[in-house]
């Protein structure tokens, strides 16, 4: 028996998905199944909404009907309040998926005499649970009873009994409680609900509020112990765990154009990796937004969708300004390929911005995103907060395989903003002003590009009516020249080349001429030579003739003397000299 | 003692409707508290509003749906439906003085704590 008991306890704690995005990741699966969970926090921190979302998600997504026992708001108010989160309680109650039960407790109506218990409440709850077969229960906020009932002793023992009863009943419950006096709850409810305690917090920092959630305790389960920011938006409650998303996002080998041909060439000829994060940093007016817009334009040209988050300019302003450099983004907006989300950073807290971005990306499913200017967000939070937000954002983009460009402002001679986020980025394109010769020009170079070959050259970024162009800067032995200095230098160089070419031509012509003269001379000499040769031949033939005549006359003389030896005449006769054999 | 005629307990003598006291006693099963509450209520009514009252005893174990109507969360609870305003008294009604105060049968002395 004992061993069986042991093996049973080794089973992991059963959990039910809370349905609240992010919370299940922190708690490793959700809230403890069949056990009560205490959600505590100060007034207005979202306890009721969280509890309500737990019920509604259960009823809608997991087919687990629920009972909401309200002590503070009546059914009417509750229905109205959560309608703003998109929960249609009226329909859900009509479908018997959720029961709302308002327990009205009014101190002035109540007189206590003698012994009593909360059996009435138990019966009511039991009846509600049984009538819909509820699996989830919310008690919001049971502490109201402490104010209404003077006899705390009875109340405490009854609450203890209630929570035990809930456990026996096997319903997963959320009990909300008000925090206070430095304790988790004003009346120490955490003593009774010991399985899981979640603390909600609402802090205002520099006039901007941030909501935070922390799992204080989760008996029998590991859980994230950090404070996680959360949001209440029109789509409900969402917790944004920083570390919940592991680094296991896909890494695509596909390359997409940066929108500037020459920049693609600099990036190994193919552009950025799909799903990578690109930091485009530079001082004011270096063309960060223009590069980003070119990127979006290229994406839309390929038929992809893009979202442009603007924290500085309005949509119309961006459209107009980009027109001036030959980027006409308006057709993409009209075609529904490009969306603008323009808002001031100080409009809401970082978390709200993050959520807006999450939602826009989830809904529109873009392939590319621009966050113009990401550094503006620093005005909303501290650097640490912004960094943590961006970490989450980048992780999110990577998981969604969204290629994101982050234009980022750097102050002159300072790189503080870059330090905060550059390590998160895959590609870092640095734009800078190059001042020389009384003018300012834009220089561009790639500071880092993970996983790809990239150029180490500084290029000059030229923004003109015809678009964005990159040209080689003049990199001389001692200096780098841009702008008109570069053009001037290039002119000088061209003149030099021309001059040298002309010189060469001239020398070539000279040699040609010389060649003519020489050849003429050669002809004359050759003619003389030939004349002399001819003369020589003439002499030779004359000589031969003389020889022949002499030979013949010698033959004749010999014949006349009756010489005994007959001289031979050469066989060939003719011009040959006749030899006399003695 | 039994709660046999549970649903309706009417006093023997008829009285004008305007003066009728309508009292509902909500209990959860026949516990000792329920029984004590009923006995105490009966005694007090007989002593103070004899003939002008009507007591309904509602057992929530048998009729759980009725708890919601009068916003019952504790038992036993005595609800004075008539005359208005509605008043609620929790407990087994053992403290007669408090019951009388709760039912407005004797003047309140200062705020009830």
Explain what you see.
The complex is a heterodimer of chains A (582) and B (113). Chain A is of the alpha/beta class. In chain A, 40% of the residues lie in helices and 23% in strands. Chain A is built from 16 helices and 25 strands. In chain A, helix 13 packs parallel to helix 14 (383-399). Chain A is rod-shaped. Chain B has a five-stranded mixed beta sheet with strand order 1-3-2-4-5, with helices on one face. In chain B, strand 2 (21-27), helix 1 (32-48) and strand 3 form a beta-alpha-beta unit. Helices cover 25% and strands 23% of the residues of chain B. By secondary structure, chain B is an alpha+beta fold. Chain B is globular. At the A-B interface, strand 6 and helix 6 of A face helix 1, strand 5 and helix 3 of B. Strand 6 (110-112) of chain A pairs parallel with strand 5 of chain B.
Report Rg of chain A.
Answer: 48 Å
Structural class of chain B: alpha+beta
- List the strand order in the largest sheet of chain B: 1-3-2-4-5
Distance N to C terminus of chain A: 154 Å
What is the overall pLDDT average of chain B? 75
Say which CATH homologous superfamily of the largest domain in chain A is assigned: P-loop containing nucleotide triphosphate hydrolases
Give me the secondary-structure topology.
The complex is a heterodimer of chains A (582) and B (113).
Chain A: H1 2-10, E1 15-16, H2 23-26, E2 31-32, E3 36-41, H3 47-61, E4 66-70, H4 75-83, H5 89-94, E5 98-102, E6 110-112, H6 119-132, E7 136-140, H7 144-148, H8 152-169, E8 172-178, E9 196-205, E10 208-218, E11 227-233, E12 236-239, E13 255-256, H9 261-266, E14 272-273, E15 277-282, H10 288-301, E16 306-310, H11 315-323, H12 330-335, E17 338-342, H13 350-364, E18 368-372, H14 383-399, E19 403-409, H15 416-421, E20 427-436, E21 439-449, E22 459-464, E23 467-472, E24 474-475, E25 480-481, H16 483-561
Helix pairs in contact in A: 13-14
Chain B: E1 9-10, E2 21-27, H1 32-48, E3 53-59, H2 66-69, E4 77-82, E5 87-90, H3 96-102
Parallel strand pairs in B: 2-3
Antiparallel strand pairs in B: 1-3, 2-4, 4-5
């Amino acid at each position: 028996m004992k061993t069986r008991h042991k093996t049973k306890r080794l089973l992991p704690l059963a959990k039910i998905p809370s349905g609240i995005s992010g919370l299940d990741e922190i708690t490793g699966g959700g809230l403890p199944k069949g056990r009560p969970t205490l959600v505590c926090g100060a007034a207005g921190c979202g306890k009721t909404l969280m509890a309500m979302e737990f019920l509604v998600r259960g009823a809608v997504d997991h087919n687990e009907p629920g009972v909401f026992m309200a002590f503070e708001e009546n059914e009417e108010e509750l229905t109205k309040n959560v309608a703003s989160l998109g929960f249609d309680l009226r329909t859900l109650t009509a479908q018997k998926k959720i029961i709302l039960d308002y327990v009205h407790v009014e101190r002035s109506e109540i007189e206590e005499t003698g012994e009593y218990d909360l059996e009435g409440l138990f019966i009511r709850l039991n009846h509600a649970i049984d009538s819909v077969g509820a699996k989830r229960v919310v008690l919001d906020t049971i502490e109201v009873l402490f104010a209404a009932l003077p006899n705390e002793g009875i109340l405490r023992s009854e609450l203890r009994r209630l929570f035990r009863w809930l456990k026996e009943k096997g319903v997963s419950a959320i009990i909300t409680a008000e925090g206070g006096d430095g304790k988790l709850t004003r009346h120490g409810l955490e003593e009774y609900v010991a399985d899981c305690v979640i603390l909600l917090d609402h802090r205002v920092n520099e006039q901007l509020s941030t909501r935070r959630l922390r799992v204080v305790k989760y008996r029998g389960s590991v859980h994230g112990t950090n404070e996680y920011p959360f949001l209440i938006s029109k789509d409900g409650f969402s917790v944004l765990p920083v570390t919940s998303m592991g680094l296991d996002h896909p890494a695509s080998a596909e390359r997409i154009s940066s929108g500037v041909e020459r920049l693609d060439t600099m990036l190994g000829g193919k552009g950025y990796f799909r799903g990578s994060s690109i930091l485009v940093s530079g001082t004011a007016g270096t063309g960060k937004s223009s590069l980003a817009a070119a990127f979006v334009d290229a994406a839309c040209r390929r038929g992809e969708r893009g979202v442009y988050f603007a924290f500085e300019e309005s949509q119309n302003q961006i459209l107009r300004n980009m027109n001036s450099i030959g980027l006409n983004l308006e057709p993409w907006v009209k075609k529904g390929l490009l969306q603008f989300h323009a808002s001031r950073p100080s409009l809401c807290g970082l978390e709200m911005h993050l959520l807006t971005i999450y939602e826009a990306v989830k809904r529109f499913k873009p392939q590319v995103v621009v966050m113009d200017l990401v550094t503006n967000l620093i005005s909303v939070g501290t650097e640490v907060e912004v960094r943590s937000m961006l970490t989450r954002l980048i992780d999110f983009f990577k998981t969604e395989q969204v290629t994101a460009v982050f234009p980022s402002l750097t102050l002159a001679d300072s790189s503080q903003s870059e330090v905060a986020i550059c390590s998160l980025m895959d590609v870092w394109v640095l734009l800078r002003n190059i001042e020389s010769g009384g003018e300012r020009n834009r220089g561009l170079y790639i500071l880092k590009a993970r996983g790809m070959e990239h150029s180490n050259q500084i290029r000059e970024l030229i923004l003109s009516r015809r678009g964005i162009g990159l040209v080689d800067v003049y990199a001389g032995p001692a200096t780098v020249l841009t702008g008109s200095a570069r053009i001037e230098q290039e002119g000088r160089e061209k003149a030099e080349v021309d001059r040298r070419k002309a010189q060469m031509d001239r020398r070539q012509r000279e040699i040609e001429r010389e060649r003519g003269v020489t050849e003429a001379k050669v002809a004359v000499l050759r003619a003389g030579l030939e004349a002399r040769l001819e003369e020589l031949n003439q002499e030779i033939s004359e000589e031969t003739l003389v020889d022949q005549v002499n030979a013949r006359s010698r033959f004749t003389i010999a014949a006349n003397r009756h010489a005994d030896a007959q001289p031979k005449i050469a066989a060939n006769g003719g011009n040959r000299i006749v030899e006399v054999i003695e | 003692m039994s709660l046999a005629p549970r649903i309706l307990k009417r006093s023997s003598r008829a009285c004008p409707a305007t003066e009728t006291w309508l009292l509902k006693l909500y209990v959860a099963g026949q516990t000792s508290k329920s029984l004590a509450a009923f006995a105490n209520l009966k005694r007090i009514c007989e002593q103070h509003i004899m003939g002008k009252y009507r007591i309904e005893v509602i057992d929530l174990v048998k009729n759980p749906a009725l708890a919601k109507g009068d916003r019952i969360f504790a038992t036993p609870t005595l609800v004075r439906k008539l005359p208005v305003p509605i008043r609620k008294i929790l407990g087994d009604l053992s403290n007669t003085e408090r019951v009388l105060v709760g039912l407005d049968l004797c003047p309140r002395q200062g705020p009830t704590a």
